[in-house]
Design brief:
mainly alpha
């Protein structure tokens, strides 16, 4: 299921992830971006998979997609500096809820097809 989402959205997700990390680095006021560090690889991978889900949500339901994209701004502490470390669970809960929602829809469709309803 998730592999098909990645296949359909990987090009756009790579572009959006790169732009989002550039925007975050602008807010963070770093002089350099260490592209070969393990921190950057982990951050890029995490944002990539979250943006794949957000792009899928945007194509299915515009409101949910916008909510997912806006919740990504809660992750970096440099954007909301007053709430350092307090808002990232909100983002993870929103994304987990959406992922469980689409998983539930796929299970229901599979059950409906196999049960003959």
């Amino acid at each position: 299921m998730f592999a098909s989402l990645v296949k359909t959205n990987y090009k756009n997700a790579l572009i959006v992830t790169s732009l989002f990390l550039l925007i975050v680095s602008f807010f963070d006021n770093l002089d350099e971006i260490r592209l070969l560090s393990s921190e950057f690889f982990l951050t890029f991978t995490m944002y990539f998979f979250m943006i794949v889900l957000a792009l899928d949500a945007l194509s299915n339901n515009k409101i949910i997609g916008v909510i997912l994209f806006l919740s990504l701004s809660f992750l970096p502490p440099s954007i909301f500096s007053d709430y350092k470390g307090e808002l990232f669970p909100v983002t993870y809960l929103i994304f987990i809820t959406y992922f469980l929602y689409i998983s539930g829809l796929l299970m229901f469709k599979n059950w409906k097809k196999n049960a003959g309803l």
